[in-house]
Structure formats: structure tokens, C-alpha cells
Amino acid sequence: MGFTEEWERWHARRVEALTAPFGPLSSLCRGRAYRSATSSDVAGLSWANPLEELTGTGSRPAPGTLRRVVLDTPLRGLGFYADLTNRQKTLLGQEGTYGLGLSQVEEGEIRVSHGAMEVFEPHPDWVVPAVFRPWPDGSIVPVEVPSTKSGTITLTLVGRIEFSLQDGGTRWLAVSPLLQGELHTVFVDLSRRDRFPFRFLRIPAPDDDNTTVLDFNRAVLPLAAFNDRIPAPAPPPGNVLEVHVTAGESHPQPDVSDILEYLDS
What pLDDT sits at residue 175? Predict the structure, then answer.
């Protein structure tokens, strides 16, 4: 499997997880219900111009350009709205956003828009070898960072990842532990101007020699980017890359009225 195909499959799984009927966007964020003209899936479709054609039907966009990804949740597979439990209705439509009148809608005819997000076109140059440098004696360092909501959140830092980018300069990011040896980092870069200020990156578990790989094409937005009521930790001190990382998810777009009009036409 080639690099681009592998990334497209990962990205499709990411969008599917975000937009699942009882997934994070449906249960934590407010959506806008609309009647779809078709029951086919639209979640994850990439629109260069939503009133023209899908990105990818012609030549592939250049690396570093942005695609616009629709974040839609279909009610297909849930049966009639009237048959859902109150808890399911609450998850599907926080604060009554879905409104009334869904009980008689045929399966698959109603979708819920969570907006869209900008995503950089993938490129293998943003996949770089890296080395994990644990803190001395395997120590764990708790660091309090600002929360996007209020107050602070404590990050547990176990070391830092060292790597080089295309410009040849050596850089590092402090990392936290995940399950099964994987690592996680919160970082900011120069591409964040006028965009959501930081992103998350999951890092494969280092090998026995502490080597691993950073794939910035898989940098993701925290849920706080889609709803400011959801807390997320800011980057720890030093996790600033003085380069434009034109890879991964870039910015949420809550207003997709033009896309909805196109889908409903």
C-alpha cells in the first residue's frame, strides 16, 4: 500500500470515528439537522469548491494545500427516531439542537452537520525519523498547562522526542505516555496563525533503541477546536516549532451552509 492510500484510509477512519452517531461530535458538540437528498454517506468528502466537484476527481492537489472535509453524521442504521431512548436522543442532539419532527423520517434521510475542517494534503516529507529521550532515571515530570476552557490541566511528561525537519535543524517536543508504549505530544507551529492554536500528535511506541517515527500528516485537532466548552491542554513550555507544519488537520469550519444547500439541491 502506498503512502497516499495508507493516509487516506487512516483519515477516513478518523472522520468516521469523529462523526459516528454516538461518537465525540454527536455527543459533545451541537449539530445542525437537515434532510438529505440522498441516503449515501457524505462524511469525509473533500470539497475544493462545494458548488463544483469533489477534490480528487481530477489531478491531485499540491502538497501543503488545504482540502475541506465535511463532518456529517447520518441517522442511517439507527431506525426511526421515535424508537430511540431518551439517552440516545440526548446524545444525538445536545440541547435540543435536532429539534422536533424527526420521528416520521425514513432511515437515512436525515443527516446532522457538525461543520467541516480544513486538512492539509498529505506528503511523505512530513514523515520523519525520531529518537525518544526519556528523562534521567525514567522520571515523570508533571507540568500544569492552561486549559482551553478555564483553569489548568496537568500533563505527565516522560521525556522528549528529537527529530529533524526538511530545513535540517534539530528540534524536540516533550511527550506524554499513552497505552502500549505509545507517546503523545501537544504542539504549536507557525501555520497556526489565524487557525486553532495547537494540535495533537500520536507517536508509535519507540523500538528497543528508542527510535520511532513522527508523521505530522496525522496531526489532529482536539475536540476543543469544534466546541469551546470541551477542555483541552495547551502545549507545555518549549513545544513550539518555528516552522510552518503544513500537514495534518488545520482548522474547524462551523459554517458549511453552502455545502448543505448543495447536498439538498
Answer: 97
Question: What is the pLDDT at residue 217?
Answer: 97
Give residue 34's identity as a one-letter amino acid code.
Y
CA dist 141 and 190 (Å) reads 27
Cα–Cα dist 101/81, whole Å: 9
d(CA 262, CA 246): 29
What cell numbers appear for 233 in the block? 491542554
Gap between the Cα atoms of 252 and 250, Å rounded: 7
Cβ atoms < 10 Å from Cβ of 15: 21
- Predicted TM-score (pTM) of the model is 0.77
What pLDDT score does 55 carry?
38
pLDDT, position 17: 85
Q: SS3 of 173, please?
A: strand
DSSP annotation of 254 reads -
Q: Grid coordinates standing for 164?
A: 529533524
Q: Can you tell me the distance from the alpha carbon of 42 to that of 16, in angstroms, rounded to the nearest whole number?
A: 11
CB atoms closer than 10 angstroms to residue 86 = 7
Helix (H, G, I), strand (E, B) or coil at 191: helix
- Residue ranges of the chain with pLDDT lower than 70? 21-22, 26-60, 63, 74-113, 254-265
Which residues on neighbouring strands pair with residue 141, listed in sequence order?
A: 157
